[in-house]
Structure to design on (320 residues):
């Protein structure tokens, strides 16, 4: 592949290859001197048309730790505000001869549209309700490390029951995780109020629940998602209090899951709505901070692997 647009484009061995590549960067990032020069002389442009804390910063840190020149384009301060189209923006970025472009955009498919217009690898940092592939990869890496710490086999998630609960309808994280976790062998249960569950999602092989207690029964992992009110139009929007009552992860509710069930959340969290602080901050169960840590390593791996061909190094397809 030249680009990383979605988990849907990846074979299982390619997902495992990216996770394995990221391991070296996890190790590097834990050392006092955290730099390599594999991307020295390359320019990475982060073009973000939607807000971000984790993804933007971790792509920037990832590029810099590998020696690249990293430039951030925030749409709110760009000529997009003067009416420039997405395609003209893409052509402009291309003319600057970036070596990789990282895009976040509110429209599903925007990343592919840009990839079709530029000459360098494009990495999807979240496009509308479509995919957020590096999020799913970092989630898999965080889960792998958490299981390993417990002495469990973790290269593959066969036998694991993973609940993804929240606003599935609007969630690119849910879609990418469903594809990634299933590719790695896990059984995925999706849980949401009926109005926030995509019609026909069962066809993707997930078990669908509207009762969170039933979904949690015996689960090994609970991955919580926030309500994406900024994407809602016309749907029934439950009040925060009502939503918490039915779908909030409380310590009491977590008892329905397996004894040591892990808790995940991609962030940003709305504490007291989809997850209680008591659960989010559980030292032995919550791996939310570890997910953020793994985000840097995964993005280092993605930037390294996707720019290899341009650097004259064996490319992704060749190595995988
Ligand atoms: N998980 C995630 O994508 O977070 P940001 O929106 O802060 O990048």
């Amino acid at each position: 592949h030249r680009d990383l647009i979605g988990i849907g484009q990846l074979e299982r061995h390619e997902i495992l290859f990216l996770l394995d590549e990221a391991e070296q960067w996890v190790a590097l990032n834990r050392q006092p001197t955290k730099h390599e020069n594999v991307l020295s002389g390359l320019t990475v442009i982060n073009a973000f048309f939607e807000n971000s804390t984790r993804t933007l910063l971790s792509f920037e840190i990832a590029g810099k730790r590998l020696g690249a020149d990293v430039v951030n384009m925030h749409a709110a301060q760009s000529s997009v505000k003067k009416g420039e189209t997405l395609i003209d923006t893409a052509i402009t970025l291309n003319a600057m001869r970036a070596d990789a472009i990282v895009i976040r955009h509110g429209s599903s498919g925007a990343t592919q549209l840009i990839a079709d217009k530029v000459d360098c690898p494009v990495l999807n940092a979240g496009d509308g309700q479509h995919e957020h592939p590096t999020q799913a990869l970092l989630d898999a890496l965080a889960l792998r490390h958490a299981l390993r710490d417990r002495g469990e086999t973790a290269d593959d998630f066969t036998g694991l029951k993973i609940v993804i609960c929240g606003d599935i309808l609007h969630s690119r994280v849910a879609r990418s995780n469903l594809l990634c976790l299933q590719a790695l062998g896990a059984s995925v249960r999706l849980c949401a109020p009926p109005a926030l569950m995509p019609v026909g999602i069962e066809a993707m092989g997930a078990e669908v629940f509207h009762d969170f207690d039933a979904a949690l029964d015996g689960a090994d992992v609970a991955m919580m998602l926030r309500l994406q009110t900024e994407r809602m139009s016309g749907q029934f929007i439950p009040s925060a209090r009502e939503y918490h009552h039915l779908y909030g992860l409380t310590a009491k509710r977590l008892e329905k899951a397996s004894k040591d069930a892990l808790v995940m959340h991609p962030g940003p969290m709305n504490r007291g709505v989809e997850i209680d602080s008591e659960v989010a901050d559980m030292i032995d169960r919550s791996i939310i901070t570890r997910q953020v840590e793994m985000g840097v390593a995964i993005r280092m791996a993605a930037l390294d692997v996707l720019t290899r061909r341009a650097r004259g190094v064996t490319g992704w397809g060749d190595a995988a």
User: Anything to note?
Assistant: Residues 52-55, 126, 135, 266-268 surround phosphoric acid mono(formamide)ester (CB under 6 Å).
